[in-house]
Every structure is written in structure tokens, then in C-alpha cells.
């Protein structure tokens, strides 16, 4: 879909007011409805984007097409691990990024998250990333990032530098990312 929509100007995709082109995304959801809703329909905002709160609304990411498209447009290939799930689902990385929109613009941070929680050799998310009881899991990543940003300029750091700053609770994931587990 990204290739099909790439020629369209951002104003067509996001609407003249920057709040999201509800008509376009609603129509696309209807066009692909059999693929994004194989069972019983879910919440309306999965098919018709919310536009309150600016820039697609604060919960634009819940729309099954607009959210992933916008993330891909924003991050390019760096977003790939977060967009692996087949419709109508989103994976844990996608929801983590969506829940922390304030940090998504930091490509180094997103790349660090990918290195820790995505196994590029097999093309899958690592097992246990969603287990909040596991040390250094995805549930801890963003709270630690928010803590680190009080002392460090995370925007100025590479993925490797961010991973180096992580506390020992991330050692398991750090080792997995270098293949030395």
C-alpha cells in the first residue's frame, strides 16, 4: 500500500488541516474490509480514523491502515519490525511505538529497540519481549528511555550508544542483539 500511496502529496493523505483524511482512510478500510476484518468487527476507530487531537488524532495508530502507513512513512525501513504482523493485528513493537509517540521521531532509539527485540536472522520478534515480568522486556524499554532522556540527549545518540547506556537488566536482550546469547 505504501508504494501505491507514495505519489500522493501528504496533504491528500493527512487532510488540508493536518488532522487526517478520514474519507480516504475510511474508504480504503471499506475497500480492504474483508482483509482487515475477517471476523467480527472491532472498534470503529480501527476502520474510521479518529481526528481529534491533531495529526490524525492521538489514537490514529488504531486505524488498521492509516496508523501503519504513517509509521512507515515516518520511519521508512526502520519501522519494518513493527509492521510485520498480518492484518488485522498489530504486534508488540507497533503498540510500543504508538504508545510513545513522543520518542518515535528518534531513529536511533527505534533502531536500538529493533536490535534488542527483533531477530533479523529469522525475521521475527524475539520471544518474551511482551513479558512484563522479564527483565529488560519491552515494557521496561520506554520507561528507561524516559529516565535516560533526563540526562542524555537521546536524539544525538546512535542505536549502539543507546544500547550501551541501558542498565544491566537489559543484558539478556543486549546479548541476543549481538548474537552472543
Oligomer: single chain
Regions with pLDDT < 50 over 5+ consecutive residues?
A: none
Q: Please tell me how large the radius of gyration is.
A: 17 Å
Summarize model confidence as the mean pLDDT. Answer: 83
Task: Provide the β-strand percentage band.
Answer: under 5%
User: Helix-strand pattern, N to C?
Assistant: HHHHHHHEEHHH
Write the layout of secondary structure elements.
Layout: H1 2-5, H2 10-14, H3 22-31, H4 33-36, H5 66-75, H6 92-99, H7 107-117, E1 118-119, E2 124-125, H8 138-148, H9 159-165, H10 171-178
Helix pairs in contact: 7-9
Task: Describe the model.
With 181 residues, the protein is mainly alpha-helical. The chain folds into two domains: 1-77, no CATH class; 91-181, no CATH class. The chain is 43% helix and 2% strand. It has ten helices and two strands; from the N terminus they run αααααααββααα. It has helices spanning 2-5, 10-14, 22-31, 33-36, 66-75, 92-99, 107-117, 138-148, 159-165, 171-178, and strands spanning 118-119, 124-125. The protein has a two-stranded antiparallel sheet with strand order 1-2. A hairpin with a 4-residue loop joins β1 (118-119) and β2. The longest helix is centred in the middle third of the chain and has 11 residues, at 107-117. The radius of gyration is 17 Å and the shape is globular. The protein starts with a helix and ends with a helix. The model has no long low-confidence stretch (mean pLDDT 83).
Amino acid at each position: 500500500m505504501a508504494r501505491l500511496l507514495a505519489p500522493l502529496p501528504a496533504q491528500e493523505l493527512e487532510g488540508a488541516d493536518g488532522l487526517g483524511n478520514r474519507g480516504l482512510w475510511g474508504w480504503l478500510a471499506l475497500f480492504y474490509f474483508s482483509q482487515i476484518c475477517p471476523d467480527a468487527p472491532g472498534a470503529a476507530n480501527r476502520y474510521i480514523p479518529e481526528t481529534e487531537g491533531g495529526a490524525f488524532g492521538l489514537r490514529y495508530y488504531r486505524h488498521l491502515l492509516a496508523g501503519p502507513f504513517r509509521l512507515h512513512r515516518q520511519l521508512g525501513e526502520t519501522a519494518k519490525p513493527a509492521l510485520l504482523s498480518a492484518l488485522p493485528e498489530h504486534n508488540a513493537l507497533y503498540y510500543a511505538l504508538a504508545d510513545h509517540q513522543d520518542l518515535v521521531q528518534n531513529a536511533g532509539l527505534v533502531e536500538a529497540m529493533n536490535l534488542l527485540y527483533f531477530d533479523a536472522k529469522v525475521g521475527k520478534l524475539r520471544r518474551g519481549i511482551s513479558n512484563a515480568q522479564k527483565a529488560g522486556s519491552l515494557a521496561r524499554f520506554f520507561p528507561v528511555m524516559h529516565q535516560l532522556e533526563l540526562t542524555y540527549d537521546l536524539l544525538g545518540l546512535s542505536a549502539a550508544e543507546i544500547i550501551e547506556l541501558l542498565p544491566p537488566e537489559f543484558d539478556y536482550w543486549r546479548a541476543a542483539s549481538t548474537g552472543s546469547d
